[in-house]
Design goal:
- A hairpin with a 5-residue loop joins strand 3 and strand 4.
- It is built from 32 helices and six strands.
- Helices cover about 65% and strands about 5% of the residues.
- The protein is mainly α.
- It has three domains: about 220 residues, no CATH class; about 240 residues, no CATH class; about 60 residues.
- Helix 3 packs antiparallel against helix 4, helix 4 packs antiparallel against helix 11 and helix 11 packs parallel to helix 14.
């Protein structure tokens, strides 16, 4: 029965993590003491539930692929004379691919989180939120109509808010979750307006039905093209916010304040399932509007290039990876904007596993660094502190290296196949978009390899710290700037005699990587001054490396589903066959040799970017080259110009392109000023008129009360005085 009708069991996929979340939450709420004693049972319940969901998704996928059919299983929800709304599940290749992605990444993150958060007091609360988060994403991808998608999007937003602010006692985490929540509400407001507009035109919320009606109305000229674009673009604001596309990307770097496993799940699955998935789902509706498609493609291209430039000199490990996600999802939005549905479906798959591997690897490094520098995100996530980690963390270093090379576009790793396909498609569509995609590929290789080199190569630097006068502590012998230059201790001492303004400038240019360890309840008070006796980061606990090893497989091989190694009877690769109900496969014929030849240009740019990072941050870095006599005498390299350019890039990256600053000046402060102005007008003008009327009535009544003594002679005098004409009246109006 299951094999014949797999769609009937689709409700089990989101229900499994939902039941796990509800069970964990109820037990921890009503039996808190028992939960503390059996806290590891939370993971024991969450992992099997996601495993079952993964199994059902996989079986449904293979059954659907065999018949290339699209199924819906619906129940009536609201039935009136005006509205007919149903809830249920939509089963097609896109739904099942996204379901497998969410469940596999979610299972890896859940297993990893058991060890990562085992010492946290909010362990049970974390797994309650995590399971609900996964259930919300799965409910979203199976939704057959816009209302159901919107409801599950709001659940995803609520869970994101709770998980980003999981450590809400930290002000930075509390601010980050509020920033993410408000920014996404802006996008969701536009999405709600767009849904209302689409229903106004088509009279339906069902995705398949409304797309057909909208295409028919626009093709027949029943809907004005300008009005059609005005209605089609607002829904795009929802994915812009959720997938961190320009200009609503500002929440993403701050969202790394949450636990690292949550960052992995958000960047690998949530931003795709809750953002890009919606655009892919209604792409048939948008595809008939060239203006809307152009806007989408340029938003994606701008985001890809902007995210790459912002990641170039980040010093925070997780924020560097966050900007990488922003850039890579920009590639996907670019592909959707040019109508490359297959490429847009392909890249989120390859990127998801690569990014999950990178983020979980970074979490392993951070977890180990806390044993050295104490619990301090600023220190444990600081890349200049964590050099040499590969020697003592070989599993993490190897898996992270694979997750680094994949987004760089190095064959045969996963992202090479999808990324190069998007670059080629964009080049055919528009030369400008092609150049944007190609340049971004070079930047991506540069900053990703920089992250790897600073984190895993070289020597471990955190144990070379000075505790005498920690406010100005430096490494003995040298310090490392963000741009890759080193400066000797003697050179630093020379700057101490400079004026304070010059010292501040020097501090801004040369960032010390020496810190003092602080006390942490779980790791103790770690204070070491001897570099040889200091602790070093070690490989993480037994439950954390296995998910990294498992994710290494799709990070390396997932891209092969889109490579046509063997010419089949259909002439299609596996991915094209899977998407047959949704795409026209004739466009994607090609063989492996042609693909590799066409990718020479993009791979060359990636190799160039890697080479630049190796020169700047490798063993023989740029600083060492500057000491060489031939380099000093070179007429082809202007050292001052190169240094000025480096500091410009550094300031641009660390200040996030100054976009947050302009938002604060022109939006936040303007809104505060307007709010205060409205408050002043309400308190002193509106309330002033009302209060003034009341006060005048009060004094008038009091005056009348004191004037009324009860004597008839007084009342008669007043009446005669009022009736008798005054001298001025007689002079002005003489009686004739």
């Amino acid at each position: 029965m299951f094999v014949e009708s797999p769609y009937e069991y689709a409700w089990v996929v989101p229900s499994c993590p939902l039941v796990a979340s509800g069970s964990t939450g109820l037990v921890s709420f009503f039996l808190p003491k028992a939960t503390k004693g059996l806290r590891r049972s939370c993971a024991a319940l969450s992992v099997p539930s996601l495993t079952v969901a993964t199994f059902i998704s996989s079986i449904s996928f293979w059954q659907q692929n065999a018949g290339h059919s699209t199924q819906q299983y619906l129940w009536s929800w609201i039935l009136t004379s005006d509205i007919s709304l149903k809830i249920g599940f939509l089963i097609d290749p896109l739904t099942l691919i996204m379901s497998i992605l969410v469940t596999t990444v979610g299972t890896s993150v859940t297993i990893y989180s058991d060890s990562y958060t085992c010492h946290d007091q909010g362990y049970a609360r974390f797994f309650t939120y995590l399971s609900l988060f996964t259930a919300s994403m799965l409910g979203l991808v199976f939704s057959p109509n816009l209302i159901q998608i919107y409801v599950f999007r709001e659940l995803v937003g609520m869970c994101s808010y709770l998980l980003i602010g999981f450590w809400f006692a930290r002000p930075s985490a509390a601010n980050a979750c509020q920033k993410a929540f408000v920014t996404n509400r802006i996008g969701d407001f536009g999405l709600l307006l767009g849904i209302s507009g689409i229903y106004w035109i088509t009279g339906s919320f069902e995705i398949c039905e409304l797309c057909d009606r909208f295409i028919g109305l626009t093709s027949s000229g029943s809907v004005n093209p300008i009005l059609a674009n005005i209605i089609a673009l607002p829904p795009f604001s929802g994915p812009v916010a959720k997938s961190a596309q320009f200009p609503l990307h500002i929440w993403l770097p701050d969202a790394t304040e949450g636990p690292t496993p949550i960052s992995a799940l958000i960047h690998a699955a949530t931003m795709v399932a809750a953002g890009i998935y919606f655009v892919a789902r209604i792409l048939n509706l948008i595809e008939v509007l060239p203006l809307s498609m152009g806007v989408i493609s340029w938003v994606g291209g701008t985001t890809a290039l902007l995210g790459a430039t912002l990641a170039l000199t980040q010093r925070d490990l997780k924020r560097g990876l966050a900007h990488s996600t922003m850039s890579q999802l920009g590639y996907t939005v670019l592909a959707l904007g040019i109508g490359a549905y297959r490429s847009a479906s392909f890249h989120p798959i390859t990127h998801a596993y690569s990014k999950a591997s990178s983020f979980l690897g970074s979490g392993s490094v951070i977890h180990s660094m806390e044993k050295v520098v104490g619990y301090s995100p600023i220190k444990s996530q600081d890349m200049p502190l964590t050099g040499g980690s590969r020697k003592r963390m070989p599993i993490t270093g190897t898996t992270f290296f694979s997750g680094t090379l994949s987004p760089c576009g190095i064959p045969p790793l996963a992202c090479f196949w999808s990324k190069d396909e998007i670059t080629a498609e964009s080049r055919l569509c528009s030369s400008s978009l092609g150049w944007v995609a190609s340049i971004t590929a070079g930047f991506t290789a540069s900053y990703m390899f920089r992250i790897y080199l600073l984190t895993f190569e070289g020597n471990f630097r955190a144990n070379r710290m000075s505790h005498t006068n920690f406010g100005t502590s430096r490494l003995p012998g040298s310090s490392i700037s963000l741009w890759g230059e080193t400066q000797t201790e003697s050179a630093i001492e020379e700057t101490t005699d400079a004026p304070p303004s010059a010292q501040k400038a020097e501090v801004a240019e040369t960032v010390s990587i020496a810190y003092f360890a602080e006390e942490n309840p779980s790791h103790g008070n770690i204070v070491r001054t001897d570099a040889y006796d200091s602790p070093h980061p070690e490989e993480s606990d037994f439950a954390m490396p296995p998910p990294l090893i498992v994710l290494l497989i799709p990070t390396s091989l997932a891209g092969l589903i889109g490579a046509n190694f063997v010419q089949k009877e259909t002439g299609l690769d596996s991915l094209s066959e899977w998407l047959i109900p949704l795409i026209v496969p004739d466009k994607y014929h090609g063989n492996l040799i042609e693909l590799l030849i066409d990718s020479i240009g993009s791979v060359s740019l990636s190799v160039l970017g890697i080479s630049i990072s190796y020169v700047a941050y490798g063993p023989n870095n740029f600083c060492e080259l500057k000491k060489h006599r031939h380099f000093k005498n070179s007429k082809f390299i202007d050292e001052n110009l190169l240094s000025s350019f480096g500091h410009f890039i550094q300031n641009w990256s660390l200040n996030r392109g100054y976009i947050d600053y302009y938002y604060n000046v022109y939006l936040v402060k303007t809104m505060v000023f307007l709010s205060k102005s409205v408050l002043f007008f309400d308190q002193w003008i509106i309330d002033g008129i009302i209060n003034g009327t009341g006060v005048s009535s009060l004094f008038g009544g009091e005056g009348a009360r004191y004037g009324g003594s009860g004597r008839i002679s007084y009342y008669s005098f007043g009446s005669i005085t009022g009736i008798a004409p005054s001298p001025l009246t007689v002079l002005a109006f003489p009686v004739t």
